[in-house]
Write a structure and sequence with these properties.
heterodimer; A: about 180 residues; alpha+beta; six-stranded antiparallel sheet; 3 helices; B: about 170 residues; Alpha-Beta Plaits; four-stranded antiparallel sheet
Chain lengths: ~180, ~170
């Protein structure tokens, strides 16, 4: 296993879109081991995306099991070719990134998400995540689309007024 | 070697202040660092880190014409830059209530006593002229832990202002 070099902004490669994984093989699993070790070597990182180490494939790792204050989590997740299929609620929270050292900012994310993805063996998986873990997953999936949290910053000053969680409008029931 | 200055400019708000000031600095060979610029009441305020190779006299001469043309008061201090050493806040406290003298002093005294180091404080007077409200948002680091600050916030609330504390859990991904 090896610790990989983290690309840091303004490296333009962080802004490129990553491609789906097609081969679920030993090479992929060896890469995941290196990627996880790289995440653990960083300061307080709870997630990492393959493009952060220069591999432009739709692969992320999220592990919210060791946060300072415990949060609901699914342990260490190897997430491949993810699709968020449902969003609920909005919350503002502070984010930073190993690819953007010495800067943090407030970002609005969905509070709950439903995620469809593949595990390292190519099996289809599904999970529901909330809060901090949902935030980490959304942050990492953004990397796969060439987006950094810098692309989603909201004003610190207006945070008070934007923290309000909006209830989804009730579905108008249609009669047959 | 860098020569960092803190440039403070204050005056009546009007359109174009930032553009004119920063153009003069750029044309004069300055590089800008971190800044806080905002409208406070009817005034525009600038606190701006400026990296300039020459003396404070030369920088004053450079910025004085534009400051005078915009009726801005100018103040300059030689500082150390110390960039790339941000302190991450781990707690946010929001305070609001009917405006009256002493809110900031009482609240910040209680919080300082409970171990708060403030990294950022912004406050606004809202409401109407006859019923002003005071809203203050504070971010900082809790040197003695969140529980100590929460106890202070509970005391502040007994004094007739609303106060709310929430930890900032920065997600690093």
């Amino acid at each position: 296993m090896a610790i990989l070099e983290i690309l840091t902004y303004p490296d333009e490669r962080l802004k490129q879109e990553s491609q789906p994984v097609e081969q679920f093989d030993d090479e992929l699993r060896a890469f995941l081991a290196d990627l996880e070790q790289t995440m653990l070597a960083g300061p307080g990182g709870v997630g990492i995306a393959a493009p952060q180490v220069g591999r432009f494939q739709r692969i992320v790792i999220v592990d919210c099991s060791r946060t300072r204050k415990p949060v609901p989590n699914h342990g260490r997740l190897f997430i491949i070719n993810p699709e968020i299929t449902a969003w609920e609620g909005m919350a503002s929270g502070r984010e930073g990134c190993m690819s953007v050292p010495d800067y943090t900012g407030n970002v609005i994310r969905a509070e709950k998400i439903s995620l469809h993805y593949y595990d390292p063996d190519g099996n289809v998986r599904q999970l529901e995540a909330e809060g901090y873990e949902a935030r980490a997953i959304q942050h990492e999936i953004d990397h796969l689309d060439g987006l950094l949290f810098l692309d989603r910053l909201v004003s610190r000053r207006n945070d008070l007024f934007r923290r309000k969680v909006y209830q989804p409008a009730p579905d108008p029931k249609q009669k047959d | 070697m860098n020569h960092w200055y803190m440039l403070t400019l204050v005056g009546k708000d009007r359109p174009g202040i930032v553009a004119k000031v920063t153009a003069a600095l750029y044309d004069g060979g300055c590089n800008l660092g971190e800044a806080s610029m905002m409208r406070l009441g009817g005034n525009f305020t600038i606190m701006l880190m400026v990296d300039f190779e020459r003396s404070s006299k030369a920088l004053t001469d450079l910025i004085s014409p534009v400051a005078e043309s915009l009726d801005l008061h100018l103040h300059l201090d030689r500082i150390e830059g110390k960039l790339h050493q941000h302190v991450e806040p781990d707690v946010r406290i929001t305070v609001y209530g009917a405006d009256r003298a002493g809110i900031v002093a009482k609240v910040t005294a209680a919080l300082a006593e409970a171990g708060l180091n403030i990294t950022d404080l912004e406050s606004m007077v809202g409401g109407s002229e006859d019923k002003p409200i005071y809203v203050m948002q504070i971010e900082g680091t809790a040197a003695e832990g969140i529980e100590s600050l929460q106890a202070a916030v509970d005391v502040i609330r007994k004094d007739g202002v609303e106060a709310h504390l929430e930890p900032i859990e920065t997600m690093i991904g």
